[in-house]
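Checklist before submission:
- one chain only
- standard amino acids only
- sequence pasted in full

Submission:
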Amino acid sequence: MKFSYALIAGFLVWCLIASQWYLLGVKGLPTDPSRFNATQMTLAIVEILTMLFVATLIGFGIAWFLRKGSIEKTQLAHSLLVKQYKEMSQQASTYRELADKAEQKLARAQQTFKADFQQLSLEREKLNAELEPERKEATRMREELQVLRPKVQLADIELGRITFQMKQMENQLLEANEINKKQYIELEEAKLSKAPKRQPVEPAFLGHAKFTEKQKDNLKMISGIGPVLEQKLNALGIYTFRQISEFTPQAIEHVTSSIKFFPDRIGRDNWIGQAAALARHRK
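Returned file contents:
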């Protein structure tokens, strides 16, 4: 700013010096007041002012052409700024409208939320009032459970003890059954061993075929036949499962009376069924 004032002051000083030079040196106007000519002085001043005006116009013209590019850039930038300002004003208006709509939606949502929250609060209070008896009942049952838990534990212990005793008794019963069965078989075999020996009998319904050792079956595989009974059956000519599976009531009666053992032993132990199964398996 100070530099601009300095240039203006220098310009004025230069104008005064140039005017004095033009009046005195070029026009040759006298400085003596007695020789002063008003007409010549007026014309000289007009000429000076005209030259200064023309010089000023030339200076402004030169300055304009020198600054024309920057001025155009400035105008273009100004136009762009004005355009951007208008666009931004439109966007701001649009955003303002959107903001207003959003605020309205937010206000409606707040009202809806407030109403829903109040409704939920009322429902919650209602549910709490309805659940209060259940809570009291659950608390009472929990207390009763705390009291009953030791009793249940004692009952579980007693049940385990009783279960263990029952298993022991079952094992003892099984052992007793096995012992009774063995004693029963030994008793029958002892009775058979004490019976008088008879000559081998070959009734007509048992057949008279002779069997080799390879053809003979292990009759002890039939439940209820021990070594002594097998010998007795062999003495009657019975050596195979097939013969026993074909027993008739007459054959059963004959074998029972010949061997002298408990009646209906053959039917009770199902010799015929066992022998038929073993015969099929042998095939």
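Reviewer check: Residues 19-29+37-66 form one domain.
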